[in-house]
Write a structure and sequence with these properties.
It contains eight helices and twelve strands. It has about 220 residues and is α/β, with parallel strands linked by helices. It has two domains: about 120 residues, Rossmann fold; about 100 residues, Orthogonal Bundle (Arc Repressor Mutant, subunit A), CATH 1.10.10. A five-stranded parallel sheet has the order 2-1-3-4-5, with helices on both faces. The protein is elongated and about 55 Å long.
Length: about 220
């Protein structure tokens, strides 16, 4: 799991980051809204969840959340803020946040809210077509094409490929792939993940694509082409 943490209080940010990393999350931190906006809108970072302070300097957290949703970045978002009025909570939730935590809070509660949001698999959007290099992928019908050649993928192969083709040339950690395709409650064996990677590599060869799913040893995989 990779988390984006946007918090201008550097001491609080460091405390949250330490606890998240102890739990096994990968955490990127930003302390001002301008830098945070660049990270939040860059899908190549492959974040699975964002924790956003509402009152960031330069660009406020609410503006960042709205920009994420306009760009159809659908990862779960938790707002952390000192603004505790009911109208503040309603505004945050109505403008794209999934949860709202008022300061001061106990970090174990934040961790519990994160676990609750990531417990279910991330929805894989069913866009009509996604293209990368010489590939065209119809996610709704599970059809992968290269030039005039096409083939039908299984539902699971389609879900795995969707993760890669949505983030081409980006490192997809094995844990990210499992979370996005199977969810956090799965007991899938690592060998089964490798099997699906092998299946997709075979599919790419079958249609003569220049694209490859490359192994980054000790980390995960990348779709290159």
């Amino acid at each position: 799991m990779k988390i984006l943490l946007l918090e201008d209080d550097t001491e609080l940010c460091s405390s949250i980051q330490d606890e998240l990393q102890k739990t096994g999350y990968i955490v990127d931190c930003c302390h001002d809204g301008e830098t945070a906006m660049l990270h939040a809108l860059n899908t190549e970072y492959c974040y699975d969840l964002a924790v956003i302070d509402r009152m960031l300097p330069i660009i406020d957290g609410m503006t960042i959340i709205k920009a994420m949703r306009r760009k159809e970045i659908a990862i779960p978002v938790i707002i952390i803020t000192g603004m505790s009025e009911i109208n503040d909570r309603i505004e945050g939730l109505d403008n794209g946040a999934d949860d709202y935590l008022v300061k001061p809070f106990h970090i174990p509660e934040l961790l519990a809210r994160i676990r609750a949001l990531i417990r279910r698999p991330t929805e894989i959007r069913q866009e009509t077509y996604t293209c990368f290099s010489d590939l065209s992928f119809n996610q709704a019908e599970h059809i992968l094409s290269c030039g005039t050649d096409s083939l039908l993928l299984t539902a699971r192969e389609s879900n795995v490929l969707s993760v890669f083709i949505s983030h081409p040339r980006s490192l997809i950690f094995r844990e990210q792939l499992i979370y996005k395709v199977w969810g956090t409650d799965t007991d899938i064996a690592p060998g089964n993940v490798d099997n699906y990677i092998s299946f997709l590599r075979k599919r790419l060869r079958e249609i003569g694509s220049v694209c490859e799913i490359k192994t980054v040893y000790g980390s995960g995989y990348k779709l290159e082409g």
